[in-house]
Design brief:
Shape: elongated
Order of helices and strands: HHHHHHH
Oligomer: single chain
Structural class: mainly alpha
Strand content: under 5%
Amino acid sequence: MDAPSIAAFLSAAKEKGASDELVMALLKERGWPEKEIYAAVARYYEERTGLAIPVRHGVSESAKDAFLYLLSFSTLATWTFALAALLFELIHAYFPDRTFENPYRFQLVNISGQLAAIIVAFPIYAWVMAMIGRDLDRSPAKALSSVRRWLCYLALLIAAGFVVGDLITFLNYFLRGELTVRFVLKVLTVLAIAGGVFWYYFSSLKEDEALRESAAA
């Protein structure tokens, strides 16, 4: 079945009184991409009305959008890794490894790099996310941008990978009977940071899906 057959099916189904939602759902179930389905529906109504579907300027994906999302994810990675490293240093200080003769000494030099990364990267991340939020408020259709969705799913994949790896490591040490307080705290640190990132972007994608469904209704 090729693209023209979608148009023929759509036309025949509409003549029988089928709704757009039903036709689109049937085509999706048969494996047709949403982009091709929406294009066929657009052509159908353009032919019936004799008018081209108006395009809202400024909604299309742009290099600016890609730049903002890439900058947000790069700064997110910077400050989250730095935060985890900083918390690890604190855990080492308060729960030293007794197997070493020389006790761990907590010094500013051990955390200066992490503090610098957090102080610089986190405000930039917050500022970029505020800019993205303002853009979405002005143009809600940007929430359906494929650039946004791909990068959000990439963030989900990376965060999920850390969560799964963290849990596997914990279970491995648990089965070997080698759990210590400092190790458990490190596991909880990674789980909290990666889980928080996963929850944030998963919630954002759920909101995007709700917007997509309301736009299609």
